Each structure stands twice: as structure tokens, then as C-alpha cells.
């Protein structure tokens, strides 16, 4: 009878952490061009500033699951070097063919490979939500962003027009421009809600995986997050349009900027309301029920 050799396992030591830190440091250095590119996109493009939240979300989800580190031992695994090689290849293809998403994804694959080389696939299984959160670091390519932004811009303009008419405001629409009280109010790409959709998606992801929710509940929340973000964007656009039509430009701009900051909290309130509605319908929300005294 043949026996299958098990992978070598042992506890973590200072030397192990030093080796892991060295591997991650080398990976960051070799992929520094992609890292700098991600930073410049996150800080330079308002609609993609949400990617700066992703590392904090990943760290938060990792911290919530930190107790799982106790059962995690050293397990040398060939999957790690394979991921590192795949990351280098992706980075090479991205540079040679000028495909940004390939270079960005290559950096993440390389970093993941460094960790898996020492921990095996068990680390991926135990900390999957935190690792998946890092996917938000990859900037959305311009072609995909345009495909999403244009329909959102049209939808935001149409719904805003309907809401203004419902409250008795005379409005005329010309493409993505609303004419209110003789003033032209352009619903530009920045007001399409694209930025809010992605930013709220990151927040909802953090919210959904911070609580012991059922998988079905998490899927519902993530699926509803774009609709909630679009709704909140319209809530901002209606009064903003009124300010531009009947007030001064300075007042309208101040309101527009302030409203942009409060949209995420408002969207979270709507999210909590959805959870309360699910509970009111007596549908299971949590992965387990708390014992009641």
C-alpha cells in the first residue's frame, strides 16, 4: 500500500516572517511601475479614487479574521511560484502590449504567489474575502468605464428630469442638458453616478463581509448596491439642478460638493433599511441565529 507524502508543515518563526517580508518587498520593487501607476490613477482621477479604499478594506477584513492565523502553519507549496511566474508573465505582456490591466493584475498575482509559497492554498481559503477586496485596487480600463458611464449619464439625466416634473418644475431636456428657468444644467460624466457606484460597491463589500451574513444576503446586498448608488445620485442631482436653475452658481457648486460627501452615508442608511426589510419579511439574514434569553 502506497502512502502519499504530506506537505511539510511547521509553525511560524521570525525567520519565516523575514522571508515573507523579503519576498513581498522584492515583488513590490520589481512591480513598482504598476504600483506607482495605480497610485497616480487613484489620486489623479476622481472617478477612480475608490481604489485607495481597497487596501484599507482588505486590512480590515483580514483583521476581523486574524484569529485564523493560529491554525495557519508553514506549508511550502508549488502553487506560489506558479502564481509568481504568472504574475511576471502578465506584467511582461502588459508592458509589451501597453495593457494596463495586465500589469496591475500581474502585481497582485505576484504578491499573492509570495504568500501562497509559504502558506499554501489554506491561506487563500481562510482569508478569501480580504484577498478578493484587493481586486478593487485594479483600475477600471477606460473602454469599460466609458461603456458604463454613458448609459449611467443618460439614465441620471432622464430620471432627474422625471423627478423635477413630478415636483412641478418646468424642465426641458436636450441630450444630457436640462434647461431649468432658462438656465442650462449639464449632467456631465462626473455626475453620471459612476464614481458613486464603484465607491459604494467597495463600502458595501466591506459591510457585507464584516458581518456574519448568509451568502445569499451578501449577494443581494452586492447586487443592489449599483441601484442604491444610482438612486442616491439622483437624490443629489435634483436639488443640485434646482440650485443651478434658480440660485447662484457658487451656491449650486457648494451644494454639489457637500452633497457628494454625504451620499455614501445616505446609501448606507438605505442599505441598513434593506436589511431591516429582509428581517421584517422573516427571511434569514445571519449565518446563524443568536440565542435569545
Largest sheet: 3 strands, antiparallel
User: Average pLDDT value?
Assistant: 81
Q: What quaternary form is this?
A: single chain
Q: Tell how many strands the DSSP assignment holds.
A: 5
Strand content: 5-15%
Radius of gyration: 24 Å
Order of helical and strand elements: EHHHEHHHHHEEEHHH
Describe the structure.
With 293 residues, the protein is mainly α. The chain has helices at residues 14-30, 32-44, 54-64, 79-97, 100-119, 121-126, 128-133, 142-166, 194-210, 215-246, 249-280, and strands at residues 9-10, 74-75, 171-174, 177-180, 183-186. It has two domains: 9-139, no CATH class; 143-280, no CATH class. The chain is built from eleven helices and five strands. The strands form two sheets. Strands 3-4-5 form a three-stranded antiparallel beta sheet. A two-stranded antiparallel ribbon has the order 1-2. A hairpin with a 2-residue loop joins strand 4 and strand 5. Helix 4 (79-97) runs antiparallel to helix 5 (100-119), helix 8 (142-166) packs across helix 10 and helix 9 runs antiparallel to helix 10 (215-246).
Amino acid at each position: 500500500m502506497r502512502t502519499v507524502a504530506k506537505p511539510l508543515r511547521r509553525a511560524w518563526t521570525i525567520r519565516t516572517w523575514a522571508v515573507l517580508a523579503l519576498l513581498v518587498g522584492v515583488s513590490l520593487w520589481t512591480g513598482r511601475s504598476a504600483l506607482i501607476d495605480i497610485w497616480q490613477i487613484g489620486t489623479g482621477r476622481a472617478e477612480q479614487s475608490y481604489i485607495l479604499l481597497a487596501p484599507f478594506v482588505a486590512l480590515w477584513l483580514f483583521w476581523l479574521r486574524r484569529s485564523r492565523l493560529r491554525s495557519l502553519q508553514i506549508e511550502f507549496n508549488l502553487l506560489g511560484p506558479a502564481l509568481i511566474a504568472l504574475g511576471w508573465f502578465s506584467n511582461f505582456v502588459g508592458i509589451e502590449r501597453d495593457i494596463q490591466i495586465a500589469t496591475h493584475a500581474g502585481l497582485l498575482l505576484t504578491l499573492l504567489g509570495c504568500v501562497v509559497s509559504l502558506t499554501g492554498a489554506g491561506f487563500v481559503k481562510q482569508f478569501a474575502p480580504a484577498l478578493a477586496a484587493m481586486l478593487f485596487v485594479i483600475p477600471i480600463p477606460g473602454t469599460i468605464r466609458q461603456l458604463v458611464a454613458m448609459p449611467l449619464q443618460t439614465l441620471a439625466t432622464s430620471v432627474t428630469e422625471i423627478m423635477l416634473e413630478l415636483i412641478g418644475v418646468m424642465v426641458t431636456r436636450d441630450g444630457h442638458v436640462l434647461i431649468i428657468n432658462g438656465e442650462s444644467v449639464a449632467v456631465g460624466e462626473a455626475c453620471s453616478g459612476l464614481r458613486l457606484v464603484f465607491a459604494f460597491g467597495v463600502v458595501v463589500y466591506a459591510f457585507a463581509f464584516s458581518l456574519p451574513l448568509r451568502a445569499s444576503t451578501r449577494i443581494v446586498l452586492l447586487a443592489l448596491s449599483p441601484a442604491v448608488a444610482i438612486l442616491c445620485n439622483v437624490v443629489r442631482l435634483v436639488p443640485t439642478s434646482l440650485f443651478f436653475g434658480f440660485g447662484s452658481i457658487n451656491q449650486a457648486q457648494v451644494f454639489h460638493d457637500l452633497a457628494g460627501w454625504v451620499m455614501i452615508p445616505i446609501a448606507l442608511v438605505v442599505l441598513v433599511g434593506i436589511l431591516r426589510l429582509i428581517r421584517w419579511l422573516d427571511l434569514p439574514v445571519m449565518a446563524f441565529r443568536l440565542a435569545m434569553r
